[in-house]
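Notes to self after the Tuesday call (sharing in case useful).
The group wants a holo model before anyone commits to mutagenesis around the pocket. I volunteered. Ligand is magnesium ion. Logging inputs and output together so the record is complete.
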Amino acid sequence: MAKGKMTSVFFCQSCGFESAKWMGQCPACKAWNTMVEETVDRQTAKSATSGRRDQQAASEVCVLSEVTIREQDKVLTGIEELDRVLGGGIVQGSLTLVGGDPGIGKSTLLLQTCQKVAAAGHKVLYVSGEESQVQIKMRADRLGSFSGNVLLMCETSLDVISETIRKQKPEIVVIDSIQTMYSESVSSAPGSVSQVREATAALLQLAKGLLVSVFIVGHVTKEGTVAGPRVLEHMVDTVLYFEGDRHASYRILRSVKNRFGSTNEIGVFEMRGNGLEEVKNPSEYMLSGRPENASGSVVTCSMEGTRPLLIELQGLVCHSSFGIPRRQTTGTDLGRVNLLMAVLEKRSGVQLSGCDAYVNVTGGLKVNEPAIDLAIVMAIVSSFRNKALPAKMIAFGEVGLSGEIRAVSQAAQRAAEAAKLGFEVCLLPKSNLNDCRQEIAGKIRLIGVSTVMDALEYLNGN
Ligand code: TYD
Ligand code: MG
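Result:
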């Protein structure tokens, strides 16, 4: 291959920002120490893309309204939590990126997906660049039996992989992981930004050209030595992140980009000894182990995509022994908590300025929805007064700067979820009261509040 002009550039391994010189901090994503030098062959890069364009058949023009969608273009995985996050199954010819910390369970999830899809009669190819056949077999043994439709390949060369895909014609391909793959046409090391991008571009061509659905695993790395999945987000159809607390056994699969379905959809799984198990009722799961009659604990409802999820919020307020009180949050926004404490102090006279405050979303979830404001306020007040809230109560609502409680979206769905799990009282914005009443009459007692003062008054009476 004729080498073109080799140039040396610096890439941010976190976001893919390109620069001619080295910098300590990436100006795009503000990460420190992530710029790494790579040599790129400008000439080859150009000819590679133009060559690819030549291979494509001349695109035909069609009438949009006459394009038909067939249901069989989607393959159901049989794992409901995954199907929903994907937008109703695996779309033919789609490229899906599954990102997550090392060890979170990406390989397990995809191997289980292969198992299910293959059992339904589809041919799948699992390519691993990280583990040996024996290691994969050992994992597979924990997951149960596999049908003959699952092909396995331990390979890191993209050219060999493409060749195999063309020959074997699988319907679904898993590439585990993109950071171990390399293409001959790029000179830099596997895992570098240019390699990872080139490999993804090649897989994209394969996916669209041969109509195979490709899953790419991408590790999220703390150090800047390996390019993270964010570098690829713009190239793929769907981006899923697999997250969870290392210490807890549940895992959340979250879609952050989806060309075929809604984003912010989540799927909840539990890691067991024999693979990942779906958690069909996550609210119940999140609330398990909640203390009864403890001050500072309150249940609220957050919408994760189209799905209401009950979560427990905990507040701890105590006298500060330092000049500047300490405020700390886990799983929610610190700035928001500071703001709500200021609102409480100013609008309802709760003296919090000399207090340390800690707010915690239990179970390792991250919630930044303003609808949990009212619950944060209640948790703080409950802990400040050292008085437990009614055990069968949930609260949600957005708090404004003048202490007003503002309406939230999908209030009826949130209240219905609470009613389903046996909650008896629901504290909600007054402006949401009417539409809620119509939808869930009689299932749960609805208390509309229009200001923070109203809410505190209700608590005083209980
Ligand atoms: P893995 O899928 O290898 O993670 P990733 O590909 O994201 O790096 O999963 C690793 C963890 O999952 C490992 O710590 C072991 C655990 N695990 C179970 O608890 N049960 C199981 O059945 C399997 C297969 C793995
Ligand atoms: Mg893995």
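Two things stood out.
The pocket of thymidine-5'-diphosphate (ligand 1) is lined by residues 100, 102-108, 139, 142, 271, 273-275 (CB under 6 Å).
The radius of gyration is 26 Å.
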